[in-house]
Design goal:
The complex is a heterodimer of chains A (149) and B (73).
Chain A lengths: L1 E4 L3 E4 L6 E2 L12 E6 L6 E6 L6 E5 L1 H4 L9 H6 L8 E8 L8 E11 L4 E4 L11 E2 L12
Antiparallel strand pairs in A: 1-2, 3-4, 4-5, 5-6, 6-7, 7-8, 8-9, 8-10
Chain B lengths: L10 E4 L3 E9 L2 E7 L9 H16 L1 H10 L2
Antiparallel strand pairs in B: 1-2, 2-3
The chains are: A mainly beta (149), B alpha+beta (73).
Chain lengths: 149, 73
């Protein structure tokens, strides 16, 4: 099927690429189908593009590139909701709040996106851990080396 | 909004499978125990609101994001 995107224009995608957020994403509960698209030259940063709303997309990143010590345990509610059977099936992203200049960009470590690669079901989970909040700078020390900005 | 008075140790039942217990009261702080099915997500409202607002902020500048990347080739 063809979808319209803000970043990539008209884009041909297959059903297999569609990631399902059965609960939507807080503030965008009605948007439940997304695809992950690359950004030119970026190795660790992607666009999470809504299939049904071309104006809606998030910039997401592999958080471990920027925050090497990032860790948390998945709640049982998440593993059962996503039908996760093995940690090998998990892909994890953080939503970036992109700022201009890009060096002010932050990552939301409090609410990561968990994706089950087996069934393409995903959820944005909310962690109750004091060490993580919604605005961690991705540009401190070695973190800036991971992005071509 | 339904308002109920409860004493410490007393319980409120919501539907068939959610129970709220007043565990303790100290000054203006109330400890509440929650029993709910594991698929029910429970969050402090202000935390949820923060995520909600951050998601809005993260999506708002979406059209200018590529320009930010392009500006710094």
């Amino acid at each position: 099927m063809k979808i319209n995107t803000r970043f990539h224009g008209e884009k041909e995608i297959t059903d297999k690429e569609i990631i399902h957020f059965p609960k939507g994403i807080p503030a965008f509960e009605e948007e439940q189908q997304f695809v992950i698209l690359p950004i030119d030259d970026q190795e660790h940063i992607f666009i999470l593009q809504s299939v049904t709303n071309e104006n809606l997309g998030f910039v997401i990143a592999n958080p471990f590139v920027f925050f090497k010590e990032y860790e948390f345990e998945l709640a049982e509610s998440t593993t059962s909701f996503l039908e996760l059977e093995s940690e090998r099936d998990v892909l994890l992203f953080s939503i970036l709040t992109v700022q201009d200049p890009f060096t002010s960009t932050t990552a939301n470590l409090q609410a990561p996106i968990i994706l089950n690669l087996k069934n393409n079901k995903a959820q944005q989970v909310i962690l109750n851990l004091p060490e993580y909040n919604t605005k961690h700078s991705i540009f401190s020390q070695q973190q800036s080396e991971a992005v071509k900005g | 909004m339904l308002v109920l008075s409860r004493k410490v140790g007393e319980v409120i039942k919501i539907g068939n499978d959610i129970e709220l217990t007043v565990v303790s009261v100290s000054g203006d702080q109330v400890k509440i125990g929650i029993n709910a099915p594991k698929q029910v997500e429970i969050h402090r409202k202000e935390v949820f609101d923060q995520i909600y607002n951050e998601n809005k902020a993260a999506s708002v500048d979406i059209s200018s994001v590529l320009n930010v990347f392009k500006k710094n080739p």
